[in-house]
Hints:
By secondary structure, this protein is mainly alpha-helical. Helices cover 81% and strands 6% of the residues.
Amino acid sequence: MSNQKQNNKGVAEGIKETAGAAFHTLHSALETTENVAMNAVDAAKNAANNLTGNDKGQRNHE
């Protein structure tokens, strides 16, 4: 194989590895964002339940 072909193959592999690493990083960031958002939703739901006394779908009618 000529040096140019070897160099091109090396560059292509480097790009592929970099793209894979970037995808993994982005995927992890999206999962983290999703977890933060879901925690915020859960906290808002819990706060609303505490304010209304509506825990597990039942109100205290005393």
